[in-house]
Amino acid sequence: MIEQNKVVSLNYTVKDDAGQVIDTSEGGDPLTYLHGHKNIIPGLEGALSGKAAGEEFDVTVQPEEAYGEYREEMVQVVPRSAFEGVESVEPGMVFTAQTQGGPLQLTVTGVEGDDITVDPNHPLAGKVLHFTGSVESVREASAEELEHGHVHGAGGHDH
Ligand SMILES: [Zn+2]
User: Fold this and answer.
1) Sign for the pseudo-dihedral over CA of 134, 137, 142, 144
2) CA of 39 to the centre of ligand 1 (A)
3) Are 138 and 48 in contact, with CB atoms under 8 Å apart?
4) How many A from CA of 146 to the centre of ligand 1?
5) Ion ligand 1 — residues with CB < 5 Å
6) Residue 29 Cα, ligand 1 centroid: separation in angstroms?
7) pTM, whole model, 2 decimals?
8) What CATH number has the domain spanning 6-67+125-148?
9) Domain named PPIase FKBP-type: which ranges (predicted)?
């Protein structure tokens, strides 16, 4: 049964409100994570607690339990000179900026002359997410996995 400190493998598909597939494990490896260590979004982790291998799930997660609300005030316009060394800045490009709070991913959402609009919101911020799938396996975590707070081996960290 899924509970704190278990290693869980999931087959899953996540869709947005419009039914568009955002991500899926279909055709690839299952998602493997350490339960209770914030390895996955809290809304999904909470809903999976108590489920057993072979059980199916169908979970709707609100933004505050997923990637947070979309914060319009975080969108900024920066000068093109901030992108020194980049030949052509195009909408959709993703850059990593070094900030005091650590690395931050910025998506370019607009280019107008020398004004570049960048959006630091997570691409899934503000979205309601619908997860469906099944629990493939549940196992005990090793002492080393618990110490690291993540899964090792198949589907996990390789180090
Ligand atoms: Zn590790």
Assistant:
1) negative
2) 12
3) no
4) 9
5) 148, 157
6) 19
7) 0.82
8) 3.10.50.40
9) 5-82
